[in-house]
Amino acid sequence: MNHMTSHTRQLTLRGFEPEVERALRQLARREGISLNKAALRLLRRGAGLGDAKHDPAIGNALDHFIGTWSDDEAREVDDAVAELRRVDDDMWR
Questions:
Q1: More confident residue, 58 or 21
Q2: Cα end-to-end distance, the chain, whole Å
Q3: Which of 20-24, 27-31, 39-43, 57-61 is the least confident region?
Q4: DSSP characters for 21-81?
Q5: What pLDDT score was predicted for residue 76?
Q6: 44: which of 5, 48, 49, 88 fits an S-S bond (Cβ 3.0–4.6 Å)?
């Protein structure tokens, strides 16, 4: 009886095209994950199996056009627009 789960099986892939390798490394670096996890995410996407549970990066497909913010930049923007989030109670009476 085989007690291996599908999560422990290994598969070796060779012959990555340079642009595929680049995308793989960029995803790993951007998400702070291993190359193995990045490869699994890309495989899931390519197979049409990507979902939020397995791939929190889905929905960022246009990031390379618009860029992303660092945590510090995001905090700076949040601080800058904080006043816009304040509800003026007098206007809602």
A1: 21
A2: 70
A3: 57-61
A4: HHHHHHHHHHHT--HHHHHHHHHHHHTT---TTT-TTTT-TTHHHH----HHHHHHHHHHH
A5: 92
A6: 49
Cα–Cα distance between 9 and 67 in angstroms, integer? 36
Task: Kindly list the domain boundaries of the chain, sorted by start residue.
Answer: 18-67
- Amino acid letter at 12? T
Angle subtended at Cα 30 by Cα 77 and Cα 25, rounded to the nearest 5 degrees: 160
Residue 58 near residue 52 (C-beta atoms within 8 A) = yes
Q: Reply yes or no on whether the pLDDT at 2 is more than 60.
A: no
pLDDT for 1 equals 47
- The number of residues in the chain equals 93
Amino acid letter, residue 3: H
Instruction: Quote the CA–CA distance of 34 and 38 in Å, as a whole number.
Output: 6
Residue at 11: amino acid letter: L
